[in-house]
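Possible race condition, two jobs.
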Amino acid sequence: MSVLFITGGTGFIGKEVVKQLAEGRERLLLLVRSAEKASAMLQRMGLGEDTRITLLQGDLSEPGLGLRSDDRELACTADVIIHAGGTMSITLDPAAAKQTFLEGARHVAELAADIQRTKGLRHFIHIVGYMSPFHDGNVDMETDVFQWDGFMKKEGPYERMKFLSDLYIRQQAKVHEYPLSVVNPCTLVGAKPAGTTEQTGGLGILVEALRRKMMPVIPGGTSHWLPIVANDDLARIIAYLARDAAPGGCTYNILGEKGREPRIRELLTLIARELRVPAPRLSVPVSLLRTVMKAGGSRLTGIPAESLSFITDRSFRTVETNELLERMGEAPLNTSDILPMAIADLDYRLTYPNRKEPEGYVKERKGDLAVLVKEGCGIPWVLVHGMLSGADDLVPLAGQLHERTGNPVWIVDLPGFGRSPSLRQGDALQGNVEALCRAIADHPGPIRLAGHSFGAVLAAKAAAALQDKVQQLYLLQPVLHSPRNRMRRWHSTSIEWSRFLLQRLNTASLTRMLLREEGAMERSELPDGYVEAVIQGLSSPRIAAANAAMLHMVHHHLPALSPTALPSVPTTILWGAKDKVYKMTKLFRHDPRVNVIPYGHQFPVFQSQETAQLLIELGSSTE
């Protein structure tokens, strides 16, 4: 059993590397600052009980890595070192950057030298970055990296110190004669197929700038690009190198071929389309933009001048990487399929910066939608939200269903809502139904499908298209008619006008509207944080546009939903009698599938316990 010592194992790259390596037989020693936080992370990853993973509490920037003597002895048993430690903050001040990267490199290299002297180090793998100027042929052994003040003077301290640490470790590998592989990743997005991107400092800088309308120009010309790779592709390469029994040592630039990747104009157009904002059209030289940013533009726009360093017109050597991928049996690097998912995920994180991931749920990709999944046994409940909602708003209902039945639960984010990419061009109603159908089709067996509000209309349409898949259909306060209110129709005349008005809602006006429409009397009757979360969500042009499109469909293009039009699957309709906007239509008043309850329109969100109980009881009676 090989022993691997890993720095940065709790970071964006490191977590995925640990996940890949945990599938093998190696023993993993993780250098962590907080054993408690790292242990909680491993629990969330499903690796909390893995006895092959040992946490060594220390600090990369401290002498001896801040390890206790017994932990240091354990670290010296490593056959392979994977050095992925260091912050991803590109705006580090010079002192912090030197301490993190250059001093960190010194301390890891000392451990490598100790191992090489006592037992031999099989492999050192250093994760650097694709803009590093160093390679296997330009290691100057006379250069003292700790005194080289003139290096890359025009760049920020993050870049300078990261690349000097690259040179230092290359020098140390030559002195002590152990194999060194330098892995140079480009800008990273989350793992395939879901593109979950926790690190918002890379591509997220462009997403944030466009959503705030702070990027009116395109950095660079027609040949400029921002190379992007998925972190699971990177992790697979690192894991493969770590398992190489006889590594030769090499530099691997981890990025796609320039000729096959989108140029910066195409990338910004894609981001703008996903966010539903205008794309910039005018190109400006990167050097001019850097000057503007350093002169105060960064404070105005929120775009660090350092981030422009990653937009380049260069081509990079990828021969070694492509040969390695071929040996691994992997396809060439490409992220086109997950970029929309990653952009939506980043927009979600920037919209809700303080929202924690719901405990016990994993974001998965189903079709082209993001779905929160909680595992269980039996037939899954698939929940579809309505207007002014998202998957997170149905977590309490999903939790109740899971607790009472033990069944798996899926909570879908419809296109443009929550973590899901926006719809492509085409009919909005049909596009939503088709996206929901593709998500459901991902599951091999039957499901229980429950939709709320307009989500109930979409669920009914999807169930009609996939009748063999849907064991039971639940329609929770389905929208059976357009609201008979001239002001509401005027508010939703067009998607653009509706979005404009939605983004000007405030907590007071939304609270008044909900109390009026729900037939409620007190603010305390609304769930804590719901109103604030809705207002927060509408700050995203993507989520606001998705809500506006849904409101426009309800008020101007509502599909007929009559008893005879419902699919021929067991169906239960729950209708809240306190709803002040929508009424039970004449066609449904005597339908035996309708169950009237004393709640308002948002009862699946506001009365989750009661809703779960009704779904289970009524579902059992129709089986």
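Job #2 (started ~2 s after job #1):
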Amino acid sequence: MKFKKPAGLLLAALLTANTSFAAQAEENLYEPQLSYGAYVDTYNSESEGRLSPETNPAVRIVKDFFNYWEPGEDGFSGKRLRPDILDYDLHLLEKYTNERTPEQEASDYFDERRNYGYSLITGFGPYLPSYVEGSGIYTIQTELPEKGADKLPKRLTENPLGNPDSELGACVRFAEYLQETDLPSLQVVKKAFRYLRPFRRSDTVKLNPYVAGAVKKKSEKDYGYTSGHTMRSYLIGLGYAYMFPQRYQEFLTRASEIGFSRNRMGRHNCLDVVGGRMIGTANAAAFFNAPENAEMKRAAYEAAQSYLVPDPDAPDDFSDKEKNRALYTERLTYNFPTVGDTTKPMVVPKGAEVLLETRFPYLTKNQIRTVLYTTGISSGYPVCDDEEGWGRLNLFAAADGYGAFLSETVVTMNMQNGGFSARDTWGNDITGEGSLVKRGTGTLVLAGKNTYKGGTRIESGVLEAADRTAFGSGRVDVNGGIMAECVNGPFDILNSLEVSKDSVMVFTIGGPQDVINVSGRARIDGKLRIVLSNEWQPKSREILHAQQGIKGDFSRVQIEGLPVGFKAEVQKKGKGLWLMVKKENEENPNA
């Protein structure tokens, strides 16, 4: 299938922590106090033979595992310091490996043998045919071996991720760089912990039969902590998400799926995968921050944005966002029991904001860090409480915007910049004491069940409510911009409403329950635009009710979508605004 290249494309998590942010927030937002250098500054240091957290930056990220396992000379001679946690991990592996289906065995095998970058491209969903065509990406791993075979097909090593000279060559080069770059510190992580793979520890953990005959024979040195497959999958997955953030959460879900496949195969413990996620995320931030990589990542982003178009007939394995959210969130911690303080404030790793800079091009670096801070997972889970904060990042939730407003939050979006700067949706349930100020010509949609208290002010552009409580519990002021709502049912303003001169309020009306409820007083001026949907039935009724009354009046009312043969006007009646409807040539409106 050929695709036409466009000139350009316009572009509450389950475990969210810190919903009542204290004064500690400010000091943790920017850079945690570290015993040693930040990972983004030290990741490429020579660490061969250095196995301690003090000398190896990758070991330092996942060093909490030393609290559960004391390494010995090999995998059998170590000491179990927390048998309860290690046994819980094995119990999960027994469950996953005994419940998997033949289809899952086959798909997990392909994730094992194919290049990481190729396995991840299903995250493109409807954009996948376009990406394949533009990049020339392919795989030779298309057939299953015999179960228990002693030798497995080799991975393709030349141009596995496509043609660097193709129209998406910049994307190919970026992905290949992420896949092929070796880090000295990573080569020794498994040696530092010397923790055996799960099928070595329990006879009830069933190894995937397609790889069972090809595992290492030296069982005493077959170490699993941490998972290299998971690390590379998150690293490259975040690379794809960077170049094409329209599918940010889908790529994250696919990366987590590949990590989980390591559990289901019996190849890795759950904590192996958690550690791999942490190191992979840290490496992505380190690579994206490196000045020498700036041009490569920019070129990859621009190529993807200018070339990729969706195929409406292409399948999308990640079309169910709430399912993706649930799976991704569970795999952050695997629902391990907490073992430490669950009230520690979130910290945001140095340089982590780069991971979302194409997802939120209209936010400042410190604003993105606040997004990361307000969407992180709770403290106390095994391995996750590293001092930099890599283990507690929830990038899926962060890709849905703020989890809380800590203070006045000014968001400036400009339509002329295109993409997410022209229109974006925040899907988290936003809490906090702070407020939201919307500026610029772009459109921001709030889709969460929000409870932030500081109020909402629209100065320019559009702020649209897609949930009944999208504007939180504070006062709503429309001071020159456009307030829009597209809620199916009542829309609540849980304080006062003021629509000033030169402002616009857009109200979409469909079913009989569509009404704006204002808990305080409504002061109205400016323009009211009413959009009647196809479900609207011609009948007069109240469309806005202010508990403490209405002052003023709209200077202009525009009604769109009236059926042929009907007229309508807006009238104030008591504490409400009514849409009065009548048939053409009918003197008395239908009450």
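The CA atoms of residues 262 and 268 lie 5 Å apart.
Logs attached separately.
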